[in-house]
Amino acid sequence: MIDRDAVRANAKYLRRVRPIDPEEICEYVEGSPHPAVVRRTLREEAFDLGLVERADGTFVPVDDDPIRPPGWRPESFPEDYASALEDFLAERYGANWHGGESGDRLRETIRRLKADYYHGNDVEYDAEAAAGYAIYHLPDYYATVGYVLDDLAERGLLPRTLRVLDVGAGTGGPALGLHDYLPDDALVEYHAVEPSAASDALRALLSGTRTNFRPAVHRTTAEAFEPSEVADEWDLVLFANVLSELDDPVAVVDRYLDAVADDGSLVAVAPADLNTSTGLREVERAVAPPDSGAAVYSPTLRLWPGRAPSDRGWSFDVKPDLDVPRFQRRLDEGGDDEPGTFVNVDVQYSYAILRRDGARRFDVRADPGRHAAMAEMERHVTERIDLLAVKLSCDLSEGGNPLFKVGDGSEAIEHYAVLTRESGLNEALRRAPYGAVLAFENALCLWNDDEGAYNLVVDGETVVDVVAA
User: Does residue 135 carry a pLDDT above 90?
Assistant: First the structure.
């Protein structure tokens, strides 16, 4: 039995002097334990000691600088993870997992999952459903999480020492994306909560993570898990593509929000389809009402203090598609369905980031003496107005005049900015990224009876500027 207190004491002293070498520490610990035992002990104590292990086997203090955006733009699902998934499938079904009876069962499973998902039916994740889910969703979920984390990293709000709780972790797409998004010198204590057979695939895929990313999987439900029994507080709590599967998502998210550190974040992600996307907004609005202890950090900023949106809230971002991974292509080519039935590389998602410290991605607020509020837009129909708004979609027009969903955090009815005549004065509407705050001058407000929404017409007389992006 190694004297942990002695190892800790020596590590605390040496960290101020030089890199910590397990072969040196073993000489100062009673019984002269083997360096491998000291190394294992240092790894187990690393998070509390604030130490990262280097490639040469020594330990050094973790950098105090926060994580900055790494330029996350994945073009494909990493080959190492693809191979690990295929190894997992081969262990379950044999080397020809994508062919014969096993391939037929997996294709039928994915068809059923897609149908249940579309109709909002409950899904039981047995071993076969978990395998189908991994095949179909690992790539897009992997890519999505990094794009969302950019919102925090750009403001220096991702610490390099990070305690993460991934609730409803599934087969591991978000976990792998998080792992690859963070730098090698980040010190991460990662805990996944996953009650289903998906946890088997999750463990297999997490087995290849780097030394300073320490994973643990808890096979239990979100409702039964108690965050405080593992850690007093969490720097990042992640609900990725799971809210729609909870019986009472508001109650669950509200409880986990209490476990977030004062300077930490709760991140919720959902697919871009209508039901899951608007369901996410309902949860966001319920757990972070105006003047509460939680604030919406992004993307649906409240630009009017004391007000909150109550429209349908369907808002999502779109990023470039990934290359088709080998495991999806193999399954797709092995059946008689229409080509592409079992391929899923679209990166389209809705998300919300909540903070307990009141921080907002952009500290911008509307001026009631200058800006029209969307909550009062009925007063301005057929008038030209000035307003502030957040860009909340890509171009939705499908070939007509460019059309973008916008919001200011007060809207009860959906608002869309329609670009009827682009100029150098208003091109910011089209060019600005999702989540940017825009200032509109001289936009024409019209009511769209067919859609039951307000249109803000941006024409040659309208000026649009980026206030924050």
Answer: yes
